[in-house]
Amino acid sequence: MQKNTLLRYLLPALLLTVLTSGVIIAFYANHPRAELLADTWSYLYVVDRIVVAGQLVNAWRLPCYPLFISALYAVTGQGNVEAVSIAQAVLFVLATLEIYILAALIFHRAWLAFTLSLMVGINLTLISYVKPLMTEGMGLWLLASLTLTTILFMKTFRRRLLWLTAFWMLLLFMTRPEWLYLPPLLFAYVLLMAHWKHLFRRLFPHALAALIVIYAIVGGYIYTNATQNNFVGTTWITNINLVGKILQYNMQDHGDPSNPQHVEIAHTLDRYLKQGIWDPYFIMAHEPKLFGNNISEPAKYAEYIILHHPKTFILKTTPLFFSSLTAYAQESRVDPKGTLGQPLSILHEASYLLYFSNSLFPFCVLLWLSLFYFKSNRQNPIVQAMGLLILICVYGILLTTAGGYRDYDYMRIYVLFDPLMIIIIWGSLLGGLLLFWNKVIRQAPFQKSKSNHMRSLLFSCCCLIAVVLSGCEGELITPPNNHNLTLVSCHPEGRVGLLFMRFDNRGADVSSASMQLHFKTPYTQQPVTMHINIPAIPHNQERLVTIDVPVYASTYWMPDSLVKVNLSLPAANKQPQTTFTMVCHDPS
């Protein structure tokens, strides 16, 4: 009997792995190069600080994701951004399997768990945020691991699982700062479940100790930030979110009129708003004096406004709880002309439509909370598990809508718990249909059925694999041209004095290389010349080279002109072009 049960759940898990991996491989093959977004550079800056100076604590970004990148660099080579993107795909496959196990533990139906997890595994909306070098892929996996561990704890109440839950929470908010306040809420919920099992006294000391350890680490991180980086907090991104929030709500004129600094900040923000500029990053770049010192003064000004006008803030935030559920944005996009462009475009449309089912989330919350309200249903493991998932999702939505100021922010952060929302919404719908079906045919709810639904589902998925593979045309790897190295892009981060240069190898393996940089800077009359070593780049791969520009009297000599790059390659690597001239400065 146990062997049959294992096979009943194992075969769908194997098929889920194949399908999820196949869709990810197809998506990556469609546009294979690693994607670096606007926020990626700040994480790569922290990676540089970790590699060069061993500095884990940074006022800009939390350390977990940069440590992940640093570890991959150490194994696969410095600047191997493609390896990071691929590793994030592996984490997504693991997260999908965890969602399958989670759904199986909740509903005890292999076909239902498979269906729910498949909605996650082949969801191009989610995968589009996993491929770029950002924290969403890692955060999704961490939150899935945290939720699964918590569910296992609620079923067994083993103390080591409680500590493992605390470990996942620590990693999660050392990756994404908005999850900093989840531990007390989550522990309160599981201790309530333990109280109903008469296990509260045995588990409370461990939960309290875990909270103390978690926030002691957070306190040590904040203290190090204050002493080392002159910033009291975890990341100054929260400061700019505060400013963005009052700009979103048009509350910039609600400061203290008796405070000259508040008046100055309000006048400055009003000047930009009259020009239709609402982006605090743009204003920060053009008002360095006002937004200096980690934006501390504008953040205090914004905090004053929110604390002194809480009713206005809450009234403006409440509608966002509902509208943000379907605020859609895709990050990494399917190339219609690339490999498998047509079937991937169809799958993207399906993922797009699936995302709008999030509008049903409030109704599902009301359903499960009403079940939780009645004592007769409160002890049901399904009700308790769904209550946990709702707690996590509602927490994420509240923190996101209260702190985020752009629709893009909502979508990007919702990616982490969107798999849990799929379980809540579609688990409720499909589970309700199952209850109705069992009632019609006079079977007990969730009783084992001898039907061949699982076999039909497995056969259908095998047909789906055949259809997808039949649409594969051409090679998955772009054939090399007659160049060894091509300079793909150059990105400056003037705030920290770094240049990032991407080199793409479409020729023979390059074991070693170097380059000479020549550019002008407003701080010296003579052009700056730098000699930089390039790491080994195998054929059909790319590397990101991080360059510290010279500094004089605390001023970075960033380029304000075209950058000339002279490549020096081994004698065996001959290519027609070894000199590149490209823009590597901020035109604004």
Give the total of domains.
Answer: 2
Overall outline: globular
Radius of gyration, CA atoms, in whole angstroms: 26 Å
* Number of extended strands: 9
Overall structural class, as computed from helix and strand content, comes to: alpha+beta
Uncertain runs:
446-451, 467-481
Average residue-wise pLDDT: 88
Give the count of helical stretches. Answer: 21
Estimate the helix proportion, in percent. 55-70%
Separation of the first and last Cα atoms = 69 Å
- List the secondary-structure elements in sequence, H or E: HHHHHHHHHHHHHHHHHHHHHEEEEEEEEE
Strand order of the largest sheet: 4-3-8-9
Describe the structure.
This protein has helices at residues 2-30, 40-53, 64-76, 81-107, 110-121, 124-130, 136-156, 159-173, 182-196, 200-229, 237-248, 260-274, 280-286, 292-308, 310-323, 341-355, 361-373, 375-378, 381-403, 407-440, 453-470, and strands at 485-493, 498-505, 513-521, 524-534, 542-548, 551-552, 555-556, 562-568, 579-583. It contains 21 helices and nine strands. Helix content is 60%, strand content 10%. The strands form three sheets. Strands 4-3-8-9 form a four-stranded antiparallel sheet, with no helix packed on it. Strands 1-2-5 form a three-stranded antiparallel sheet, covered by helices on one side. Strands 6-7 form a two-stranded antiparallel sheet. The protein folds into two domains: 2-223 and 329-470, no CATH class; 485-583, Immunoglobulin-like, CATH 2.60.40.2150. The model is unreliable at 446-451 and 467-481 (pLDDT under 50). The protein has 588 residues and is of the alpha+beta class. The N and C termini lie far apart (69 Å). Helix 7 (136-156) packs antiparallel against helix 8.
